[in-house]
Amino acid sequence: MNLILLLSFLVAASASASVHHEFKYLQQSLMISCFSAILFLLTLVAIIFLHYLKTQPCKVYLVDFACYKPNDDSCATTKEMLVEAFKNYGVFSEENMQRMEKFLDKSGLGPKTYVPQSIMQRQPKLCLVEARKETETVIFGAIDELLDKTWVRPNDIGILVVNCVIFCPTPSLCDIIVNRYKLRHNVLCFDLSGMGCSAGVLAIDFAKRLLQSHPNSYAMVVSTENTNKGIYMGNNLSMLVANCLFRMGGSASLLSNHPSDRHRSKYQIIHTLRTHLASDDRSYNCIFQQDDDQNIPGISISTDITNVAGKVLKSHITSLAPLVLPVSEKLKFLVTFVGSKVLGLNIKAYVPNFKLAFDHFCIHTGATPVLDTMQKRLELRDWDMEPSRMTLYRFGNTSASSVWYELAYCEAKGRIKKGDKIWQLQFGSGFKCNSAVWVALNNVEVASLKNAWTDDIHEFPVNVVPPQNS
C-alpha cells in the first residue's frame, strides 16, 4: 500500500513539474509576443511620426535684417531743399509747385530724409548711370551690414530674391549682387519687378516657399526702390505725388531653415498671406505707370487710393483673421460674416480686435491718408501706429523696404520681447495687400543693437500733426 502511494506521489510530482514547465514556457511565449507587438506598434508610430515630420514644411527663421542709412548727410534733404530743387528744374508750373509744397506739408515726412544727389542738382541727372549708382549704394550698404551682423559667408547663400519696382537693368540686380559678393555659381536668383510697394512681404513669402523645398539653405531677400527712375518731369497732377513721397532706402534680410539657427535668430515666420485684386479695374488703375499727354513717363496715383486700400484690406483680413485670431474673436467675426454675406442680413461687419493677435504692427508707410485709413479700419491705438508714422517722418516712403524700418524702430525702442507677434502689412499697385506674421524668439536687447534708428531714436516719437493752415 505504501509502495502504491509512493508511486502515485511520484507520478503526481512529475505531472506537476511538467505542467509548471509548460506554464513557464507559455508565459515566456506570451511575453515575447507582447514585446514583439509593442515593438511593432512603436516602430509603426515612429514611421508615421517621421513621415509626418517629413511632410511638414520646415521652419523658417529670420536670422537678422538691416536697413540702409547713409553714413553722412550728403544725401540728406529738407522739404525746403526739395522744393528749391523742383523750382530749379524749370518744368513745373507755378500752380503745381504750390500744390507740391502743400502736399509736402501734409505728407507726414519730417525735415530730414534722403534722396540721391543726382536729383538735387539744377539739371537733374536722370540716367542709367546715376540710377545704377543709387541702387548699388543702397543695396550694398544694407547687405554689408547684414553680413556683418550674421557672420554668414556669401558663399553660404543658396537663394537670392531681389525686388525693385521700376529699375530693372541688364545685368539684373541679382547679377549685380552676385558679382559684388561672389556668390556661388548655383545660387537660385530671382528678380521681382513691377510688384509695387507690397513686394517686400511678397519676396519674403517667395523665399519662405523656396526654403521649404531646399533644406539646409540660407536665403537673402533685398528690397529697394529707385528714386532717380521715379522722378516725374511733367505737370500731370496725379503723377506729381510720387515726387514728394518716395525717398532713398532699402533693406536686406537673411532667412534660414537650418534647425541649428533657431537659437541665434531673431524671429520665426508664422504666416504669410497675399491678396490680389487686379481683376477689379478700379484697383488695377489705382497706381499706374504711364506717359502723360506730353509723352513724359511717370506713376499716376489715384485720389481713390484710400478707398481701394480699405477695400483690399477688408478682403485681406477676411482670410487672415481665421489664421491668427483667438477663438472668441473668430466666432464674432464668423457670425457677422455669415449674417451679412450668406443670410443677407443688414449687419455691420465686425472688425476683429487684432490687438489680441499681435503685439506690434508694421504697416506700410504709403502716405498719411493711407495710415489714417488703416488705423481707423483696424481700430488701432496711436502707440500701434507709431512705428509706421515715425518711419514715414524720418525716412519717407521707402517702398517695399518700409516695414523693415518700422520693425527696426520697434527694436530700437526696446519693444520686442520673446514671444511677441509682429504683423507686417504692405499695400502695392495691382492692387495688392500682403502680410507676414513673425514671432520673436528672444528679447531684442537695445544695448547691443545697431540699426538705422540707433543714433537718433531718443528723439522719437515726435508730433506729426500737419500745420492747420496748409
Automatic annotation (TrEMBL):
It comes from the Eukaryota. The keyword Membrane applies. Its EC number is 2.3.1.-. GO terms for biological process: fatty acid biosynthetic process. The chain crosses the membrane at residues 27-53. Residues 53-341 form the FAE domain. One of its GO terms (molecular function) is fatty acid elongase activity. The keyword Transmembrane applies. Residues 359-438 form the Beta-ketoacyl-[acyl-carrier-protein] synthase III C-terminal domain. GO terms for cellular component: membrane. Gene3D superfamilies: 3.40.47.10. Pathway: Lipid metabolism; fatty acid biosynthesis. It catalyses: a very-long-chain acyl-CoA + malonyl-CoA + H(+) = a very-long-chain 3-oxoacyl-CoA + CO2 + CoA. Keywords: Acyltransferase, Membrane, Signal, Transferase, Transmembrane, Transmembrane helix. Residues 1-17 form the signal peptide. PANTHER family: 3-KETOACYL-COA SYNTHASE (PTHR31561). Belongs to the thiolase-like superfamily. Chalcone/stilbene synthases family. This is 3-ketoacyl-CoA synthase.
